What we know:
By secondary structure, this protein is an alpha+beta fold. The chain folds into two domains: 57-136, no CATH class; 141-358, no CATH class. Helix content is 55%, strand content 13%. It is built from nine helices and ten strands. Helix 4 crosses helix 9 (321-358) and helix 6 (235-252) packs parallel to helix 9 (321-358). The radius of gyration is 25 Å and the shape is globular.
Amino acid sequence: xxxxxxxxxALVFTISSAFAESGHSTEEFNPTETxxxxxxxxxxxxxxxxxxxxxxxxxxxxxNGLVLFSSEEFHGDDNGEVVVEKNGxxxxxxxxxxxxxxxxxxxxxxxxxxxSKVIHLDEEHHPINKTPWDFSITKNVxxxxxxxxxxxxxxIASGNFxxxxxxxxxxxxxxxxxxxxxxxxRDEIAIPNIGEKRYKKYMPYLLTVxxxxxLNNVIGLIPFFPFGTNLTGNIAVTFTxxxxxxxxxxxxxxxxxxxxxxxxxxxxxxxxxFLAPIEVIGMFTKPFSLMVRLFxxxxxxxxxxxxxxSLIFIFKSYFVAPASIIAVVFISVIEILVTALQAxxxxxxxxxxxxxxxxxxxxxx
Length: 365
């Protein structure tokens, strides 16, 4: 009962906070803009619309050195209309990216100053202003540090319990939650896919990926500060995770693995030549599929929930609300399952690739 009440209140909070701005605006409601606003990264936490906003620090490495200021100085603008002047330079924010104001790229590819416009767009409406090196603490960066802190606290506490005199062979407290999950990753993912002889050296990475993805998926579903971010729905994050799996797989490959890629045994020579480029392409499509699968599933879940709630504002009728909320509750329950499922799939496929790279090939002559 307590869990139901908590989930219901969280859902109400999500709906009200996601659309708090619509009540203060006379503009026509745009569901696409609203959905994209809630899945992309930003330089501030909108705790309750514009009424309560927590602004994060902007950290830039520019032509004149390091520049620090609060994102509050942009006054919530994201359309390149507000200019912030620091260290003799002018900056503006457009679609949550920071640019040098009044600069543009000319036909020769050089950046020039042109004061007629703050933001210059190309024919496809993409900014062509010069950009500084941006090391700002955004929502996703904050969520990354938060998840790191939570994982450190959980696993250090679990490790200390096992080293203490309180451990008598039966886990207690936080260790009783962590141990079954660690055993699950070991017995159901690592050993079946890698092998009992070789799985141990891959366990640290597999455990890290599993808990990191699962925790951040859950953080993305909690609708109130300091949660509600979309870290695992960021293509840069999923790309980094996929690249790590690719690097480990590549460096783990044994002689048999590389032979099956470049010169497949047991097939005619013309077929070997035909299969080699396909196998090489497959080396890169595997991490690409890891990246896109996690990114697309997590992002799609957030967009579907926002879109279902948007139906109330599109039809401008309270009669649509019950059906919309029921659908949101149903999708939210599915999303809870998806948080663990996507962590399991990413970890399992990574273990499978490691197992394929280290498998001992016994050829018959």
